[in-house]
Structure formats: structure tokens, C-alpha cells
């Protein structure tokens, strides 16, 4: 017989199809609007961007209805250095904490400054994860960007499950997605 | 996007297969059934697919330029003919003489 509506919806979820749920975060219920805009172009799950389009930090607009609620934004690459052999999973590109609701990421405290994605091989997923903070927090920057773990970070800082996730695919400027011979 | 079921047409690539899906439709003018074939490149992590296998494909993120599908399961294995092993002894039990050309 056919599958139930919820099973079909979960199957069609771009985060499940893209492997973001599983590789980066656990199954969660999206309960918050998160808009990420690069050079006037808003990203949606699974859209394509070249490295030249993501050089400068994006405008990340956090929704909500009151400024007293604080949020944490994490930007990671689970396919570093190559999707077939992601030994650096996850690579931390950006970490902003204490972002007030109804504002954007520029109002938050930048713990790790923006490092623009520059994939060398294959098509990389760049994932933005938004967490709701229980209170104002002091987050210390990790020692290095490689081998960052979003789940462990959320558990260590008592952030719980994410409330919004969005991702896009990024590949090098001259790439066609095919194999690169060095 | 839902799963697809098709036949493996090529497994020459490393960890990749080409899967064909046949679609029959009635031509509106000629009133004949025609066959259209679509080819999908899919990721086969274990290199376990053989030509003729019936497989189920699940959608995935872009894995390469043309790969957007993953082989989730092999539904039916193709029957591959393997010739019987050649007996080095002849009918009378003696070793067959080697023929030099």
C-alpha cells in the first residue's frame, strides 16, 4: 500500500534528501523563519552558488516577534575537504551568538569570523543552523575550524535541537561538478 | 521526489552505475505504443550492481555533475552465465597434449 502523508513529506524534505539531517543535525521540527541572502539573492535548500558569490558574509535575517529572545547561528561545511572523503567534517565557516530576534546576524556577537567557502573538489553543502538560546551566553571560539561538531556544540552550550536549517550547494568557480584531475 | 525502479545498463564506472527506465506511451497520431528510455546516473557505494540488475533509486543531493540518485537496494539480481570449469584431463584420464602452433 501507499505510504502515509507524513512519511512522504519526510521523504520529500530537501534536508533529508540532501543528507543534512543525519550528517549535521538530528531530525527536528522547523519552527522559525530564517532567511539567508547573498548579494540580494535569497538561498533556498539545495540551490547552487559559486565561490565568487559567497565571498562576503551573507545577510542572515532572524525572524521572531521579540528582541529579548537570543539566537546562535552556525555555518558549517560537512563535505570538507571532498564529499567522497570528508576527513575535516564539519568545517566551521562562521559562528555568531546572542543574535536578538527580529534582527540580523550583524547585531550578534561574532565568535568565529566569516571564512568564505572555497571548495576544491566536488560539490559541497554549506549549512546554516539556527539555535534558540536559553539566555545570554559567553561562547569561547574553538581552537580550529576543522572537525567541528554541531551536535556536540549544541549539547555543550545547552541549545537543544535547531529551530531552523537552510543549506546550499557550492562548488569551485570553474567546476562542473565532475571529477577533478590534479 | 519519489523512488525509481530501473535496470542497470552500465557498471563500468567506479562507484557509479547507469540505470535505464523504460516508459511506454500511446502516440496520439500514429496510435502505436512507443518506448522511451531515460538514463539516470546513480551512486553505488559498494560496487555491487551488475548489468541487468533491477534496482531501486532514491533521490539525493548532487554527488557529481550528473549524479543525483543513490542505489538504495537491489531488487532482483541478473542471471549471469558462468561457463563450467575446464577440466585439464581428457576423457581417458591422461593429460591433454599441448598443441603448438
Describe the protein.
- The complex is a heterodimer of chains A (182) and B (101).
- By secondary structure, chain A is an alpha+beta fold.
- Chain A has helices spanning 5-12, 14-17, 20-23, 150-156; strands spanning 34-38, 41-42, 47-50, 59-62, 70-77, 91-100, 109-112, 124-132, 164-171.
- Chain A has four helices and nine strands, in the order H-H-H-E-E-E-E-E-E-E-E-H-E.
- In chain A, the strands form two sheets. In chain A, strands 3-9-8-5-6-7 form a six-stranded mixed beta sheet, with no helix packed on it. A three-stranded antiparallel beta sheet of chain A has the order 2-1-4, with no helix packed on it.
- In chain A, a hairpin with an 8-residue loop joins strand 6 (91-100) and strand 7 (109-112).
- The radius of gyration of chain A is 16 Å and the shape is globular.
- Chain B has one domain: Nucleic acid-binding proteins (OB fold (Dihydrolipoamide Acetyltransferase, E2P), Beta Barrel).
- Helices cover 0% and strands 45% of the residues of chain B.
- Chain B has strands at residues 4-10, 16-26, 33-43, 54-59, 67-76.
- Chain B is flat.
- The mean pLDDT of chain B is 85.
- The chains are: A alpha+beta (182), B mainly beta (101).
- At the A-B interface, helix 1 of A face loops of B.
- Chain A: Belongs to the phosphatidylethanolamine-binding protein family.
- Chain A: This is Flowering locus T.
- Chain B: Belongs to the universal ribosomal protein uS17 family.
Amino acid at each position: 500500500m501507499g505510504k502515509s502523508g507524513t512519511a512522504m513529506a519526510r521523504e520529500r524534505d530537501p534536508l533529508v534528501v540532501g543528507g543534512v539531517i543525519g550528517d549535521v543535525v538530528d531530525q527536528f521540527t522547523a519552527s522559525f523563519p530564517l532567511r539567508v541572502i547573498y548579494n540580494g539573492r535569497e538561498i533556498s535548500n539545495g540551490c547552487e552558488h559559486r565561490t565568487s558569490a559567497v565571498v562576503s558574509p551573507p545577510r542572515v535575517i532572524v525572524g521572531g516577534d521579540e528582541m529579548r529572545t537570543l539566537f546562535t547561528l552556525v555555518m558549517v561545511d560537512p563535505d570538507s575537504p571532498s564529499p567522497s572523503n570528508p576527513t575535516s567534517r564539519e568545517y566551521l565557516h562562521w559562528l555568531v551568538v546572542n543574535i536578538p530576534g527580529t534582527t540580523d546576524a550583524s547585531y550578534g556577537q561574532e565568535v568565529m569570523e566569516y571564512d568564505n567557502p572555497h571548495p576544491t573538489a566536488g560539490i559541497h553543502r554549506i549549512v546554516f543552523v539556527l539555535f534558540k538560546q536559553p539566555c545570554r551566553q559567553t561562547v569561547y571560539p574553538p581552537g580550529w575550524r576543522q572537525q567541528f561538531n554541531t551536535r556536540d556544540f549544541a549539547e555543550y552550550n545547552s541549545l537543544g535541537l535547531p529551530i531552523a536549517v537552510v543549506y546550499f550547494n557550492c562548488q569551485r568557480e570553474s567546476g562542473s561538478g565532475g571529477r577533478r584531475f590534479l | 521526489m519519489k523512488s525509481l525502479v530501473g535496470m542497470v545498463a552500465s557498471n563500468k564506472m567506479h562507484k557509479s552505475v547507469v540505470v535505464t527506465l523504460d516508459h511506454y506511451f500511446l502516440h496520439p497520431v500514429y496510435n502505436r505504443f512507443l518506448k522511451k528510455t531515460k538514463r539516470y546516473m546513480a551512486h553505488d557505494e559498494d560496487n555491487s550492481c551488475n548489468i541487468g540488475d533491477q534496482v531501486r533509486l532514491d533521490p539525493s543531493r548532487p554527488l557529481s555533475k550528473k549524479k543525483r540518485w543513490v542505489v538504495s537496494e537491489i531488487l532482483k539480481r541478473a542471471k549471469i552465465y558462468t561457463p563450467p570449469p575446464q577440466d585439464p584431463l581428457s576423457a581417458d584420464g591422461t593429460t591433454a597434449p599441448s598443441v603448438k602452433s
